[in-house]
Design brief:
By secondary structure, the protein is of the alpha/beta class. The chain has 12 helices and 22 strands. It has 4 domains: about 100 residues, Rossmann fold (3-Layer(aba) Sandwich); about 130 residues, ATP-grasp fold, B domain (D-amino Acid Aminotransferase, Chain A, domain 1); about 50 residues, Dna Ligase, domain 1 (2-Layer Sandwich); about 110 residues, 3-Layer(aba) Sandwich (Rossmann fold).
């Protein structure tokens, strides 16, 4: 029987990576939850909007209501504040289901940069902290200011002068004053099993960062990552997936920036090498002994904005052109093929409507498409395609503007060019 997993907040980059990690598993049923309407509703089939913010007084009560209603077995938190809150409430016995993260003490340490540096002082290199601006000499400039509790690059500043330091501290007196690390930045993805064994750690360079999120990252082999991971794992109690970030100082030494007992938004890089850290964490929580199987190839991940669409188009049949639509320059149009099989999955009739001038049956057989379509209309007498469309609860897809305009004018159904297919794919 499938276990029900609540991902909250599901529209964050972490929540979206969790969907990619778990949505195809036959063992789990995903339910996405958000406090505000976000991209999650375009991704998660089961989506709950309007949940309280993590700091709201009724947050846990409402989450417990969701747990009861949807019979939630595990919550996968997708934001650092949610990680801490849920872990604390679960250990108090207030939250009604398990949380996929480490213990509350670890989550508390991880949520604070200052606590992290204090706990790991003398174990791994951490940034030098300046207690007050007067402690900073000209030789120390520039310095880096960042919140003790925060994520990404929000609220962080690089100050090149003492005047800039004063300016940022006036805006937020709680900012930490840290040494500036000018070198390359890395994230190290890790996994620790229920017995405390560090089963996996792999570093990736954060080559291009946008809004604190690594949007271009590449696997890096460096023995120092494993050494740091073992030292951190021996000091702090982790369970399941976690990661830490390091950056090079002026001398090329790796200095710890932060740790987090959760999925990272760019963990898709190791997932696509075979290491699904979210899935491993769930199986570990269920008491299974997990192991790592990683392919040996190198990989680069590059991310950009991706569009998802919502529409009110209702149809139970698709009329579809062939040349330059299903097949383009002798190759199958993969977006159209995806859409065809989406229709098959949903019980929507797919009718091929083509003027193909060659041997249609042969080309369909050659491309393994002979049994894909519910019916085939092969127009060879020059008649209009619109005359073949009998179902008014249908849509028409054709690369020809002339054909689309005729069908739209006469049949008055939605018509689509091939570049529009993306809005039909769920």
């Amino acid at each position: 029987m499938k276990k029900n997993i609540l991902v909250f907040p599901c529209g964050s980059e972490v929540g979206l990576e969790l969907y990619r990690s778990l949505s195809m598993s036959i063992h789990f049923n995903l339910i996405g939850g958000s406090s505000v309407s976000d991209h999650g509703k375009f991704v998660y089939e089961n989506y709950i909007n309007g949940l309280p913010l993590v700091d709201d007084d009724d947050f846990i009560d409402r989450i417990n209501d969701v747990i009861d209603k949807y019979k939630i077995d595990f919550i996968f938190p997708a934001h650092d504040s949610v990680v801490l809150k849920l872990s604390q409430e679960y250990e108090k016995g207030v939250l009604k289901c398990k949380v996929v993260t480490s213990c509350a003490k670890t989550c508390d340490i991880s949520r604070s940069k200052k606590k992290t540096y204090e706990v790991l002082d003398g174990i791994v290199a951490t940034p030098k902290i300046y207690n007050k601006p007067v402690d900073i000499q000209d030789v120390d400039l520039p310095v880096f200011l960042k919140p003790d509790v925060g994520q990404g690059s929000k609220g962080t500043y690089k100050a090149k002068t003492t005047d800039e330091i004063d300016f940022y501290l006036q805006r937020d007196p709680t900012l930490l004053l840290l040494e500036y690390l000018p070198g390359r930045e890395y994230t190290v993805d890790c996994f620790t099993d229920t017995d405390g064994n560090l089963l996996f750690c792999e570093g990736r360079e954060r080559k291009r960062v946008s809004g604190g999120i690594s949007v271009n990252s590449e696997t890096v082999k460096d023995g120092r990552f494993s050494e740091l991971a073992k030292k951190i794992n021996n000091k702090i109690l982790f369970r399941g997936v976690w990661f830490f970030q390091v950056k090079e100082d002026n001398n090329g030494n790796l200095v710890l920036m932060e740790i987090a007992p959760r999925i990272a938004g760019t963990m898709g890089l190791v997932r696509c090498k075979g290491v699904n850290l979210a899935l491993m964490s769930l199986f570990d929580m269920l008491g299974y002994k997990v192991s790592v199987l990683e392919n040996s190839y190198d990989m680069i991940i590059d991310r950009a904005l991706q569009s998802k669409y919502s529409h009110n188009i209702n149809y139970d049949q698709v009329y579809l052109d062939f040349d330059d639509t299903v097949m383009v320059e002798g190759k199958m149009n993969l977006s159209v093929i995806t859409f065809i099989f989406q229709c098959i999955n949903n019980g929507i009739k797919v009718s091929l409507l083509t003027r193909h001038s060659g041997e249609l049956n042969e080309i369909l057989k050659k491309n393994r498409l002979e049994n894909v379509f519910d019916e085939i209309f092969w127009v060879r007498d020059g008649s209009s395609k619109s005359s073949y469309i009998k179902n008014r609860n249908s849509i028409f897809i054709d690369d020809s503007f002339k054909e689309r305009k005729e069908v739209c004018d006469l049949i008055k159904i939605p018509v689509f060019d091939t570049h529009m297919i993306e809005c039909l794919i769920k």
